Amino acid sequence: MSRVTATASCTAHAAMVEATGEVVSQVLLVRRVAWLAALAGDVSARLVAVRWTAADLDVLAGGVGLDGRVLPSKGWMALRRLGWNVGPRSGVHVCDRVLRCAQEQAARLLRLALHRRRLVAAIVATWPHKPGVRTGAEWEALRALLPDGVTAAEVRNRSRQIAAYRDQHDAFPAHLTELEEPPNVAAQIVLAAADRQLLTLQRTGDDGARLRVRLPLVEWPASARDWAWHVLPVALPPTVPPQARLCAPTLRVAKGRVRVDLPFQIPVGFAPATGHVIGCGFDWGLNTLLTGVAGRLADGRVVCDGRPLVYDASGVSAKLHRLRAEREHLTAKIKHQQRLLARITVADPRHATLSSACQALGVEHERLCARIRNLNKALAWSAARWAVDQAVAAGATVLYLEDLATLEARGRRGRANSWLSGQVRGRIIEAIRHLAAKHAIAVVTVPARGTSRYCPRCGTGTSVLRHCPAPNRLAERGWRWAYCPACGLSCDRDWAAAERILARGLLGQHATRTHRSTGARTIATIVEGNVARARRTRKPTRAARRARRTRTDLHPRPAARDRAKNRPTPKRPTRTPAANSRNNPMTSSRVPDRRTVPAPPPASGGQRPAGHAPKPGRHQPHRTGHVRNSHHRTGFHHAKATPVLTFIEHGSGPGPGHACLSCLIPSRNYREFKTLCGAARHDT
């Protein structure tokens, strides 16, 4: 039994001074926490600035202290072993535990710099002959020097940074310290390095905790009298289970409130990397956010239940695209006003008006950014919960996803690049890993190249799919539907890609690799195989169950129908002038709610009839990104997902369909199935 760590963000609204019992208001509490974060941040910033040299980074990368012992994992202890100590400013009294927290934050920043330094050194050592274009041999040489877990996006961004430095200085940077300035220190206090002399944390119930921490009473404390113990009641969110073990938090100030980033650990079962029989594969689709399938491995072949799992968030995507367009519009206005402010002086009477307008636009811009972040977070966790629920219902022990490192819009236009960059895929993967760990389900990424291009039914990786708009428009070019000319497969493009992802995962699970530090599992070897579909057992309808009880025939034979029908079918009454009479009724048709054609403009005064006349010069509103059926779905509550169904029928026994589970011969119809399968009796 292992433990998984997560973080819950809580808010402390008020506090109480332990010695005097004085109730501290939220405004005063925010001020004192900000003073504590500023004291620790000042020490961290000065420590990072002093040690931001090539020689000091080399000593830290060596991993050996001054006494010859290996540096410990805790950052503040490693810096003290190296003798890198920076005290507070003169006249300021800070306890040793606050200095520990400051050194811990500085050590984390310097250790992150070691990763960036190795990445920059690898790119400079294997700089391509043609800038911006790397050959296959150059990529192989670069991957041999790169650290583990580096994505193509990081390589591209660092290459642009190095190219800009080379254009400016006409030389490559010799070290990371020449390429970058010392990193900025966040205004927060990391209490993970503290002990009982600075804080205590105790749980008071299933939904509450008691945080006891020492805070300064003035901005620059001169002695120990300027420090006091404060008791902060913290309300825990529902995501923190009662059996979770709380860890030391991080305090920061955000939007006028004290935020408590509280890590907690929960016990989870072990998820093996191999030996999986039932699994789920999900594709980052163009039609929907997530499209998946559930299947099992039988005799070296993958069999799916023939039912796609769809999470459609078109309404949320439409709202996100509108918010992004509005944010870009506000950014353009802010830049324009900043250019106007740069051309006038402070004494100009227009300066105050422009400054206030620019400040108001900045506040609105921050509000829009926060709204987009919150909506992305809600969408990511909703999609992750849905995917994990599907896996639990299907009895799957593994989830296969596409590797994000290979999901790049290469050779496409800027619109496709912006559409891909605006997705929440990275956050969804982290949420899926967190939620799947609670159910002991492994999450593995597989290569994404070719999943939407080749046919999953053929399974050889050579049958190229033909992408078209719809199944009845196979001759046209499109992106939604997939058709295989070799085997006749015709299905949704994302559905076919999800089947190939599942096949690559189950067939290549022996090549699963686990990252040493992060624990992320991935499969780099591509193993191709065909996928068969065995449909689920259909439950009988209510009419069929009633007919079974009463032993009636729902579909009589043609001869019986002819004998029962001894009179001609009555014709529908036609419209006559005397339709209003009782003896000659007529059928009435429902009046449409809206005119099918626009009403003509009125020739004289008075109101115009119902309907909308086309107005000259009016264009349709521009819509950014790909949105499907978004005219009536404009909110997060309209997101549609496939309901969660159990996988018992498919997991325990065969179901009806045109595939035999004993010989696993796929077919397109029942006649072809009987021809291909020579057995006398099969469970289909």
From TrEMBL:
Q: What is this protein called?
A: Zinc ribbon domain-containing protein
Give the Basic residues compositional bias ranges.
Answer: 533-549, 615-635
* UniProt cross-references to Pfam families, sorted A to Z: Cas12f1-like_TNB (PF07282)
Q: Where is the composition biased (Basic and acidic residues)?
A: 550-565
> Domain named Cas12f1-like TNB: which ranges?
426-500
InterPro entries per the UniProt record, alphabetical: Cas12f1-like_TNB
Alphabetized UniProt keyword annotations? DNA-binding
Q: Where is this region: Disordered?
A: 530-635
Q: Tell me which domain of life the UniProt entry assigns to the organism this sequence originates from.
A: Bacteria
Which organism was this protein described from?
A: Nonomuraea guangzhouensis
**Signal sequence extent:** none
Amino acid composition bias (Polar residues), ranges on this chain: 581-590
Say if the entry is tagged with keyword Cytoplasm: no
